[in-house]
Amino acid sequence: IDFWTFPILSQKKIYLQTQTYVYSKLKHVKKPRELNDPVAEHLLFKHVQQNIIQELYPCPERIACVLAAIELQSKYGDNDPHKHRTGYLNKIGLSEFLPQTVSRHDYAYWQERLFSIHRKLAGTTQREAIKKYIDVARQIPYFGMTFFELEDDVKARLLLGVAEDGLFLFNTANLSLLHCVTFRSLVAWTKKDVGFDIMFEEEDIVQSLTLITSDVKRKEILDLLDEYYVLLPDDWRNSMKKPNNSKPVVLDRPVDYLPPQKRTFMGRFGSRLEFLKGYYMECCAQSKHIPLRSMCCQIDACIDNEVPLNKLDLCECNLDNQGLDFILKSIGKALAFSPEVIFQWKENLDLQEIDFSDNFINVEEYRFIFSFLDFFPKMKHINLSGNLVGNQGAILLSKCIEKLKSIESIRLNNCDIGNKGLTELLSSIRGRSTFKVLECAKNRVADKTLSLLGKLLDDTYLSVLNLSGNKIDAGIIDAGILGSILKPLDISKRIEVVDLSDCNLNTKAGIRIALFLESNKNIQELRISGNKFNSEVFVKIGLSLRTNTSLVKLDLSNNMFGDKITDKQIKEAIGFVSKPTSQLEELNISNCCFDYIFADEFAKILTTNSKLSSINLSQNPISKVGTPPSSWKDALSAGHIKKLCMSRCDLTGTGLLNFMVSIAGVQLDELILDGCEPIGDIRMLQEFFANCRSKLLSLSDSKITDDLLAMIGPSLGKNRNIEILILNDNLLSKDGLERLTHSKINKNLSELHILRNPRLEKDAKVVAKILMDKTLLRKVLI
């Protein structure tokens, strides 16, 4: 049916039968002052929503997403993370909520984005959501327009929009506004033999415009102009010249409607980030290059939350030279773009941190990275770790750093940088009061450059120094390399983190580190893993910690501390734990050759400590008959330990099960028992799973089979505490995990990690879908 119905005509007179489908739309799109009729409200909402979906009201992607999220709120209520997640809208289709040009690609991503905005609308009622939808839609410059294709008197094709505030002429190709004639400037609209004339005032001069169209369209256009004029507020019409319109019939009172809203036209892009994403997507489309999802997500999150992009995190994105080139080119174009002054514009590209770590970027591409840094003088943090920077790249970076007045941190771990490159970097940061973090782990740095570092540390403001993985020869301490580095740090009031792991340090170097701990009153984190230090160094470090009141994290892993250690040395080394002045919260002593006796003494002294909350004892032979010392039950029951790792400590069988049952009621944030074998009385394992109060439980590499998982499934279903369950490197298959879904897993369990289960490899995608569809899990890693 292609005509307007009138309420004064009966259904019979307009030939409507009982089987007739009537497709209706609003003739006048105006917002009432008060809309108390839910039916009328819904009709207005559906009219606006359909025009947006069908792109009769073209709008930026940002507004389209906000509107779609509001519609989700009106339709489904508050976001339920267990239900409203990726895949929920697959059957309905995103085309019900988003314009097709927006929603046609990557269903999963768009659902994540919509539900992210949906969560922010919690508490909004259905009617509030409908009103909010209309209010947001009114920001669209084409809102309320009825469009007609026509021609001017020289046969140029135009698009005419008629709305409550006047008429608008657009270019049909790109919808750019050619002319705006509001009712305040309209003088007359008159019928002609072919088409109609519009007369309007510009700078007190009456202009005329002839528009050619069919008789049917002409009548509809002129009727709309007549009727919208009558619906203008009285004070508007009284202050305007009265045009030659005829008074229409069957209309509401103008006083019932809000005055026309000021219409603000937008450019194609409303901000730097919108231009950046648009240009980037176009580059990728032309070259058939898959856009980097991580980059799009970060840009969209900033656009949706109306915040500037300060950090660009592209770590581990498999970036090759072409992918990086598209990104840098798009950023350059976005920065160079000059917006039209007549449109609203937001400056929201203000990078202060970039992370390109662990990609495949070569030296040549670094020239482009460093040249693009010139556009961001506020840059504070740069991370290029895990890329082939080399000496050449480090020298280029040092020149760039000299221009960055606000630089605070540089991370260049595993970048194949040698003495020459690091020397240039050190020279560029010398005397910089803003510079705080230098990470140069796993490079080719030798003694000569480290000696220079010692001299430069007198004139730097470092708070974090990471030199791990550089094979330092620190045999002679008095005049040696390590001494030259630590000497200026002994009294530093700024240094907070030092990492000298895997540096080939010997016993004398270890003793020098203990002296550093004793003299420095500011250090908060020390990592000296993998240096093969012996029990003598362990004792010296333990004694120095008795007077240290600043250290919070200590990593002593992968050393030889427990080899031939005596009972007396154990008590001397761990005595600091009982000191009330100790601030240590995290201790990693994994793979240090500690035995059952050490573990027993350590657990006993832990009962007197209230600060130490995270302990890693993995890869130490601390068990007897498969169980650790019983004193660990008392240590854990004290309640201050929140993270415990006892992986690969020879815990197995009934001994392990007894230990697990004894600590099941202890409230932990993380309990990690990887590489253990909970084999034996299944009832004990079921009891543990039913009562375990750990938020994260890891039993990776523990020979867990489908049958074992099926037997503990019901107990897991009763558990109200476990939120993350990690079962990597086990013997699970699709069949076992399907059986698990029948156990009614409690909704508190939100994540399941089942990586590297060989029997799952070929069915990974199917299993992930089954688990997400049939349980309340929010995340499955497989």
From TrEMBL:
Alphabetized InterPro entries for the sequence: Band_41_domain, FERM/acyl-CoA-bd_prot_sf, FERM_2, FERM_central, FERM_domain, Leu-rich_rpt, LRR_dom_sf, RanGap
GO cellular component, one term: perinuclear region of cytoplasm
One Pfam family, short name: LRR_6
Keywords, sorted A to Z: GTPase activation, Leucine-rich repeat, Repeat
Entry superkingdom: Eukaryota
SMART domains in UniProt: B41, LRR_RI
One Gene Ontology term from the biological process aspect of the record: nucleocytoplasmic transport
Entry GO MF terms: GTPase activator activity; small GTPase binding
Domain FERM: 1-236
Name of the protein described by the UniProt record: FERM domain-containing protein
Species assigned in the record: Acrasis kona
Lineage: Eukaryota, Discoba, Heterolobosea, Tetramitia, Eutetramitia
